[in-house]
Amino acid sequence: MAEERPDNEAAAGPAKPESPVIEAEKPEALPAEPSQPEPAAAPARPEPAAAVPARIEPQPEPEMPLLRIEGVTRKFGNFRAVDRVTLDIRAGEFFALLGPSGCGKTTLLRMLAGFETPDEGRILLDGRDIAPVLPHERPVNMMFQNYALFPHLSVKDNIAFGLKRAGMAKADIRTRVAEMVALVKLEGLEKRKPDQLSGGQRQRVALARSLARRPQVLLLDEPLAALDKKLRESTQQELMELQRRLGMTFIVVTHDQEEAMTMASRIGVMDAGRLDQVATPRDLYETPASRWIAEFVGDINLFEGQVGAAEAGRLAIATRDAGTLYVAEPRSPLAKSVVSVAIRPEKVKLSRRAPAAEGTSAHAFNRLEGVITDVSYLGGHTTYRVKLDSGAIVRSSMANTTRIVDAYAASQRVVAWFMPDDCLVLEQ
Amino acid sequence: MASRRINRLTPFNVTALALGLAFLYLPIVILVIYSFNASRLVTVWGGWSLRWYYEFFNDRAMMDAAWMSLRVAAVSATIATILGTLAAVALTRGERFKGRMLFSGMLYAPLVMPEVISGLSLLLLFVALDAGRGFWTVTIAHTTLTMCFVTVVVQSRLGAIDRSLEEAAMDLGCDPVRAFLSVTLPLIIPSIAAGWMLAFTLSLDDVVIASFTTGPGSATLPIRIYSEVRLGVKPEINAICTMVIALIAVVITVASFASKLSRAQGENAVPL
Description:
The structure holds two protein chains of two kinds. Chain A is an alpha+beta fold. Chain A is built from twelve helices and 20 strands.
């Protein structure tokens, strides 16, 4: 604590003119924030999987997480909506819970807000078990998916609602509301009722209302789901900037992987109630823990095959659909003999003829011959579906870096090739 | 296509409309017109007059009965509104308790139960309890009759309000009771008002249950009218009925405006 102080003050310095109230009210939330970037990057590098369920219990003092979820389970009848989820969230983090609908991510969020009680496990906030704490007593606020604005109150009164409950002085409420209105750029609309606002404006009111109490943790349930694409993208940027400026901990629930990857510093992927992987966006995309995650996050080509011999740092995998593929030899030996080779479409290149590599070694790259069946022009890039002679499909995505027509046409014979280092070996 | 044809003012449509309205309202119109009859005989027109209105306001017994009816209606409607609203809240917001279906079924029983049966069973109860029949027995009987109507009205409104509004209020520092009072109640107030007015008019109208549960000296207006009519219809009755119709028309209009207002707000409660 003592050694952190000077560097904390230095870091908080530039933030001062923007958010003086936060500092005065939540000094305890701030110290962790400046030190956040280092641990965020550190555990990700050695082995992302190890960073997942925080097995660093023996050393609680130096980096006690703001929020610790320990083996939390929530059952509805026999159905486990949330199944033994363990997760640490540090102060100042922008964390995303990503998963398909019905995976339990919203239930987990509602447990943090206090609307659901865990059947098993504990939720610790600042080291304190918050299970017995009712929603209105938690230093946590939530932004609801449908915004849940009070239709009978004006924008101003919606934002002031939580402040009045907190017993804040009238003058302070006025200042804070004005500050929040400015923060979400709603000046001039204070007197409007929610039904006189557009979807984007309502979203801002909901955000301002949930931020007004300066919660330690802000929970956002699909905050941008109701907005159109353009507005969603600009709001993503605003949310990120806001979070950085306020130094608050944001936990966002979303089913949109692009949104999660854009905004969050770490992403937790949930499926069927379980937390499958927690990683930075890059690690999640480049080293997914399972086939399911690989397919859920972005596009991927998968080839199942038998593990063969390793040679010169290359492991041969005999696949049924694509012949023998060479992949970089994994650092730890594989436990299974049947694995999947995964390659992202943008790492699959196409050419008319097999590329003549300098190495000329057979292991230098993987090449698959086939016929293009489908060309999807998507503006920034074009996706080709190549049907291999075995009948399997390989997708290749190529950036349209020039204004020329598509390089390849349907029913053209091509070679799809990719580097062994770009392949992933997935055991499950 | 069909709807366009049905909306057009063809001679057939106009005739059908006129006959339909006449079927519904001609008796009432005749009653209202005859209430201004100067003649002593109900069926003979003797020119316009306010005589029978004057007579009514000087008829001690009728005035007492009217006052009694208004008091019973106001008190029973108020109690029914409170209980009915609580029942609606329990049914829509409460935990899914065992026997919930049975509870709601029992709540709605008076809606379909013949009034004679409700009246008779209440009479038996009051006799068994040895309760002196009068103002309170009628009031209690009317409360049981009208409560379910209030519940229906309030419950439909409550069901339309997004639960996340209450959760948002709790999230922002309200305990559950506070959340209900500061968010839900303002949104359902028009429905509660509509429910009250519905209960009020139902109580004001009722003859059957009141005749079972009332006692000597505490006749309500409908009972009084009914007993007078048995001895022959006085034109005064027409005057009273006209005033009752006017009162009910006002109350029903206000109630429907209130529930319309409530519905308009409800649409905003669920954005998008």
